[in-house]
From TrEMBL:
Annotated spans, Disordered: 1-73
Biased composition (Pro residues): 25-43, 53-65
Name of this chain's protein: Uncharacterized protein
Upper taxonomic lineage: Bacteria, Pseudomonadati, Pseudomonadota, Alphaproteobacteria, Hyphomicrobiales
Entry keywords, A to Z: Plasmid
Top-level taxon of origin: Bacteria
């Protein structure tokens, strides 16, 4: 049993040697300069031109639907 404990501690020692010292900060790579995107160009929507007025949909009706029967009630 003592050999198993020594073997596992040997593995941990090897891992510690491969790892960097946590007290040393990792070097930070040089950062690119900040990029400010250009503002978008004011263009009209592709489906409607500025001089076109939207026409009402004839299928849309503000009245509630009527289901058959006579119009008298």
């Amino acid at each position: 049993m003592s050999e198993g404990g020594m073997g596992s501690s040997h593995v941990f020692r090897g891992m510690e040697a491969a790892m960097q010292d946590p007290r040393q900060p990792e070097p930070i790579p040089p950062q690119p300069p900040p990029w400010d995107p250009e503002p978008p160009i004011g263009e009209p929507e592709p489906d409607r031109l500025p001089d076109e007025a939207p026409t009402p949909n004839p299928d849309e009706n503000p009245e509630p639907p009527q289901y058959g029967g006579s119009p008298d009630g």
